[in-house]
UniProtKB/TrEMBL annotation:
Keywords: ATP-binding, Nucleotide-binding, Transport
Name listed for the protein in its UniProt record: ATP-binding cassette domain-containing protein
Transmembrane stretches, start-end: none
Protein source organism: Staphylococcus ratti
SMART domains: AAA (SM00382)
Listed GO MF terms: ATP binding
Gene3D superfamilies associated with the record: P-loop containing nucleotide triphosphate hydrolases (3.40.50.300)
PANTHER family, per the entry: SPERMIDINE/PUTRESCINE IMPORT ATP-BINDING PROTEIN POTA (PTHR42781), SPERMIDINE_PUTRESCINE IMPORT ATP-BINDING PROTEIN POTA (PTHR42781:SF4)
InterPro entries in alphabetical order: AAA+_ATPase, ABC_SmlMolc_Importer, ABC_transporter-like_ATP-bd, ABC_transporter-like_CS, P-loop_NTPase
Domain ABC transporter residues, every copy: 4-202
Length: 202
């Protein structure tokens, strides 16, 4: 179960997000740049505190501003794929993935599922954009999250790689059966992947 209620002022306007579902879904938060879409993901992840907010995930309360409840990011069990992936250049692919979780058996399973086993001992600079996305996704999933957040996950990919990545996210959703929230400015990406589209406007 996922219940998200957020209100926050940014750039002179109020942004609001209302999600409620008893079963996992893929949500797209759509809208033009500068409307606060990434800010909403950061609030869900615990990286920023909203003016008003309530988040419940799988029976746990992650945030309740009225009750002064605000779990730290590491206590929320939320996976986050950042727009620029934020891979550590001085670490190998395997070290990047293990940075979040030391469970090597789970990491090996992820690498097989995401087809990046052959990259484990390489460094990120030698990997393509699509490969970097899979590595960052493996790191986000390494902690076995209850929710996955994706910030503009397809923005830096060419058309062919983008189509492969859309299918990859669908595969992850079917395999893990956890809710996914992704940010996009693309109507195509939203309609291709999301069960529900939330449009952010001023």
């Amino acid at each position: 179960m996922l219940n998200v209620q957020l209100k926050h002022h940014i750039n002179g306007h109020l942004i609001q997000l209302h999600l409620h579902s008893e079963h996992p879904k893929i949500y797209a938060i759509a809208g033009v740049s500068g409307m606060g879409k990434t800010t909403l993901l950061n609030m869900i992840a615990g990286l920023r505190t909203p003016e008003e907010g309530y988040i419940q995930l799988g029976g746990r309360t992650l945030l309740d501003t009225k009750q002064r409840c605000n779990l730290l990011p590491q206590a929320r069990n939320v996976g986050y794929l950042f727009q620029d992936y934020q891979l550590f250049p001085h670490m190998t692919v395997l070290q990047n993935i293990n940075f979040m979780h030391p469970d090597l058996t789970h990491v090996e399973t992820l690498c097989r599922a995401l087809k990046i086993e052959h990259l484990k001992h390489m460094y990120p600079e030698r990997c393509s954009g699509g490969e970097k996305q899979r590595i960052a996704l493996a790191r986000a999933l390494s902690q076995k999250p209850d929710l996955l957040l994706l910030d503009e996950p397809f923005s830096s990919l060419d058309d062919e790689t983008k189509e492969e990545s859309i299918q990859l996210i669908k595969f992850i959703y079917d395999l893990w059966q956890i809710p996914i929230i992704f940010v996009t400015h693309s109507k195509y990406e939203a309609t291709q992947l999301a069960d529900e589209v939330i449009r952010i406007s001023s």
